[in-house]
Every structure is written in structure tokens, then in C-alpha cells.
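G., the chain you wanted modeled:
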Amino acid sequence: MHRRGCPSTCTRAPVELRLATVVSMLDTVRVTASRRRLEGTGFEQRARRGAGRFVTTKDMLRQPVFSTSQVFQTVPGMWLERTSLGANRVTMRGAFGRCSPSVYLDGQHMRHLSAEDIDAFVSPDEVAGIEIYSEAAAPPEFVPDFGGCGSVVIWTKAGENPARRWSMRRRMLHGAAALLIGAGIGTAMHR
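Predicted structure as C-alpha cells:
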């Protein structure tokens, strides 16, 4: 390549670059993860106080269920009711009749979950324990608002393997598809 105004014999002066070598030593980074265990959730302490109803894995083995929401049918004062849209919802005896409890999954409040949503998020074999409280008996950490109803707290087992997590995501997608089809939206999408 020639510069303008430079004859073909014009050469460029060589450029020499030197990079300084800098060796930096970083401290060893150790990553530790703590998995949620039922023992670390306060489940046992609250169960000893006896203010609510408590369902453990052993209880679920005595009365086998095919979906997590079926557990609630075995608890006095709780029901699965079909809504006008065809979905099931978990209800319980509240201060003013039947109402939908607040649902917590591993301590996180999940708003407006249907029975199908609960089943999509957690299969029975993933449940470590379930706490069920009336509004008056619910511990402060499981009372999101003054909704006039109780709370359901579902704890999952520690050490969940990746295949099971994939299965949960797949169940969630199937549940969402079923809801869309049930609402009539799915048929419009297939046209």
C-alpha cells in the first residue's frame, strides 16, 4: 500500500511495541452453596408450637397422592373447588366462609396460584413439608396482607437434581398451555 505523494520506494519506519508482563495473583475463590433443608426453615419449631396443620413426607406416603394439590383434600377445612373458568382453586375455611389462602413456596409469597399452578411448580415427590394456617394462627412471616384468609406454605426437598428441575419447567409449560386452551385462546393460536 502506498501513501499519497510517496514514491513506491518509500518505506515506513518499523514500530516496536513492548508489553509489560503483569502477573496478578488473585485469592482463591471458593463458592459454597447452601441448599434449603426443612430443618433450616423453622418448620420443626412451628410444628412443635402446634398453631397450624403440618404435612410431612411421611404423611404423604401414608396417603399417596398423584398431585400436590390433592394433599389439601385430606386436610379438614380445605377443599379443591372448580372455578367458572374450569380451573381448580384451593380454598379453606376463613373468617367469612371459604376463601383462597395465600400460598408460599420455599418461603416466597406466590400470588394467585390455582391448584394446577401448585401442581406445575411442585410434584408430590418434591415436597418436604407443608404448613397450613388459619388467618389467626399464621406466623407474621406468612401473612402478606389482610386478605381475611389463611396461608399455605410448601417447602421443597433439598438436593433437587437438574432432571427434576427440567421436569418442573416442562410441567409449568404444559400447565400454561392447558390454561390457554381452557380459556379458548389456544384454539385461536392453532388457526
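DSSP finds five helices and eight strands in the chain.

Shout if anything looks off.
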